[in-house]
Amino acid sequence: MSVGYDGIMIPLLLTSLLQLSHAFTTTELDGVKISDKVERAGRGVELSCVDADISGYQTKSIVWKCKGCFSISETRETIVATLNNSRYDIIVEPERMSWKGTRLAIKPTITKDSGLYFCIANTKISPALVYNLQIQDVPSTPGKPLIMSFNSTSVNLSWAPPVHLNSAPLITYKLEILEGEAATWTNYVTINTGSKESHFTVSNLRPFTVYSFRAIAVNRLGPSPPSEPSYHMMTLREPPRGKPVIIRTFNLSADSIQIEWDPPPPDTIHGEFIGYKISWKELGEREDENSVTIKEPETKEYRLSKLNSFTQYLISIQVMNPKGAGPPATVTVQTDEGVPSQPLNLSVVAVTNNGFVLQWVRPERPNGRISGYRVYYSSDNFTNVRTINSSEPVVSGEVDGLDPYRKFNIFVKAFNAKNEGNASEDIQVMTDVSGPAAPVLTNLTCPGQDSVYLEWARPPIHYHSIDSYKVYYKKKYAAIWLEKHIQVPPVDSTTSKPAERILINNLTVGSEYSIYMRAYTQSLYIESLQYPGNKSEIIHILAGKDCDRVQVSPMREGVVSESSGHYVAVILGGILVFVVLLVAVLGLAFWRRNLMSKRFYIPAGMRKEEDFLMWDIQVDNEDSGRTSIQTNMFVQHVHLLHTERDMGFLAEYQNLQQSASFTGKLEGRQDRPSTMRVYNVDTFQSRNSYTFCPSPWLVDPAEFWRHVHKSGTTLLVAVDTELDSHLPTGIVHLN
Known about the structure:
By secondary structure, this protein is mainly β. The chain is 13% helix and 35% strand.
């Protein structure tokens, strides 16, 4: 150890002077061999001082230098370490650098260690070998990205490249994308630009969204630290991309529909959420679309009203922002069945005497599936309905079972599964007439050998009018009925005589005839149609003079055939059944014979001059007689006598007076005074029940009452008030 002035070591002074001399000198490296040495950052490296190894003598001093290290200047030399008289000094970062003999050791290496390392031993001016040490590491941090331009889905970025590539070529850049203004850099998206260029257009961004970006440089050793984040930016608006989610749709009534939905995700709205647009139209229609705008984004349901009944609607709902409406969410809904409109063109197709046939056209607006129609028909206080099940465009329906000649008010309603429709226009129709009831024979006389006179009562039941009569007659066993037609005059005729009478001539004397009659009524709708009434009871006569006095049994016809038919059945059925049926048939024939004896009018045996003359008809210039009147026909007979101002009563009474011009005999009563003119009168059930005295005021009262007492008379009928003198005291006189 050397000692200097004031106790200062002389070697230390020399070292400082050596460093100072090297610090201000630049080593000439031209022509010096350069050895490349590459090492990754973080590892260790040792550099040998070749000058010390090849000097051949003792090395007293070594100076390690680095050009371009620890500086941004590539020409600046930095003294790293010195060796002077066995004193080892580390000038730069002694925590990482050290001496190992004459070698310089660096561990761990960092990127700023890169440079040209060389050593100068002793008094040499230039080194024998230069180490080009390259410490490789990831690139340095790129500059902050700048927003150059942007639209709704993309942004154009630019940034400064890394200052130091750290001895490794740049491969590419990566960009980190952060979405949201309040988000942190813990959840971001990284994309690779695939380029060494320091600018890039980021696409596929969300419209109307805030973004921030960071740049990263990448070499083969890895990515650099990320750059500072860019300033926040927001992409532009565009129409919404999301659709509402339709949860439920249903019809509330025949003209309203309820729709409910959920909004789309917020990131699909792409702008300020300002509401919804709801549109609807009938399915299949190209135009006439209706729409409504809902400006409350919180709304999630809406009711469509004033719709057409039973109609399918295409309903769409869209989200709206300032740029417009998004894609529609659509659904098809049908309104409920409504009230059908009125059937059209109601008309009567045909009319019968018990109903009618209607025809109409289906409603213009069915408002549902037409199930059928109800025909309402009313008359007076009676209302009924008939259901016609049909869905055809043109419908025909029949209503039957009605009364003849009755006016009905008619309208039709369509119906569906939900409602009954509106009524059609009213029409009125009257059912056609029907045939009258059976006429009832009131008089039958035979004024001549080959003629018969018939008189009958007008049927009590008829419809609208009786327009004609037909009298049918035939001989016994004849196949064809002959007929006589009688046209009834109009009701307002005051000159015509009653039509309920006829004289049938040209009969075969001695032949048995069957006769019946029926009334006819003219159809109101068909000119060629007359409705026949019920047949009257068939009567049987024997043609000839006074044929009404000869009884003919109606059992003569049909008995043989009926008996023979039963006889065959009895043969097939057995002898016992034959006997029973035979007895029944004989009993029936006997009963009918007795019954018919009461139906024929058997007048009392009188001379021709005793017959009553008919007041209203003369036949063959001969008077015709009149038989007794049945009880059930007495009212009609009296009504007939009242016609033509009671001319019937007057004529008949005059005939009685003329026929009473003789002095009659009381059968079985020889004590009657000869001055008392009387004759017997038959009833419809028995003979000689009445005694007729045409002029009682000419008879002595004593004789009159003697005759009454002896004849057993129980009832007196007076037709003249001059009989009062014949009444005993205390007798009440009934006019």
